[in-house]
Automatic annotation (TrEMBL):
<protein>
    <submittedName>
        <fullName>L-fucose mutarotase</fullName>
        <ecNumber>5.1.3.-</ecNumber>
        <ecNumber>5.1.3.29</ecNumber>
    </submittedName>
</protein>
<dbReference type="GO" id="GO:0062193">
    <property type="term" value="F:D-ribose pyranase activity"/>
</dbReference>
<dbReference type="GO" id="GO:0042806">
    <property type="term" value="F:fucose binding"/>
</dbReference>
<dbReference type="InterPro" id="IPR050443">
    <property type="entry name" value="RbsD/FucU_mutarotase"/>
</dbReference>
<keyword id="KW-0413">Isomerase</keyword>
<dbReference type="Pfam" id="PF05025">
    <property type="entry name" value="RbsD_FucU"/>
</dbReference>
<dbReference type="GO" id="GO:0006004">
    <property type="term" value="P:fucose metabolic process"/>
</dbReference>
<dbReference type="GO" id="GO:0036373">
    <property type="term" value="F:L-fucose mutarotase activity"/>
</dbReference>
<dbReference type="InterPro" id="IPR023750">
    <property type="entry name" value="RbsD-like_sf"/>
</dbReference>
<dbReference type="InterPro" id="IPR007721">
    <property type="entry name" value="RbsD_FucU"/>
</dbReference>
Length: 145
């Protein structure tokens, strides 16, 4: 046991977060995301059954957002014509605001295939059990000030 580490953070994820440097990205992927095929050059960690929101909260307790990029957080945008609701985006914004006040403007949107490309360049993809559609999120790590 370690003090101050959220219990949802498993040892493999703690190691990955520790290894990541400034500008490296981590993807928290929903259950629909093709983590293994997109993450061919990334570390892929399985968090089956786990929703993303509490994991996002725990990760943001441990790493800062990149302050040198316009969009340190990226969400997968809806496919044109898709009318599915995305209340999870608002919950993500609340979590981000709790840990990094005023950084909501730094949330960018990427078209589905552009998101896959960006995710493929990430250091790690965490494959979760999140059931919400369009719940995928990329977080770019910053430096501690």
């Amino acid at each position: 046991m370690l003090k101050g580490i959220p219990p949802i953070i498993q040892p493999d994820l703690l190691k990955i977060l520790s290894e990541m440097g400034h500008g490296d990205a981590i993807v928290l992927a929903d259950a629909h995301f093709p983590a293994e095929s997109v993450g061919v050059r990334s570390h892929v960690i399985r968090y089956d059954g786990q929703p993303i929101e509490p994991l996002l909260d725990a990760v943001l307790q441990l790493i800062p957002l990149d302050q040198y990029t316009e969009h340190p957080v990226l969400l997968m945008d809806k496919v044109p014509g898709d009318t599915v609701d995305t209340p999870i985006w608002d919950r993500y914004r609340q979590v981000i605001d709790r840990h990094e006040p005023g950084k909501q403007a730094g949330i960018g949107m990427l078209e589905r295939f552009a998101f896959y490309e960006e995710a493929g360049r990430s250091y790690c993809i965490v494959a979760t059990g999140e059931q919400s559609q369009y719940a995928n999120i990329i977080i770019r790590k910053g430096v501690i000030r």
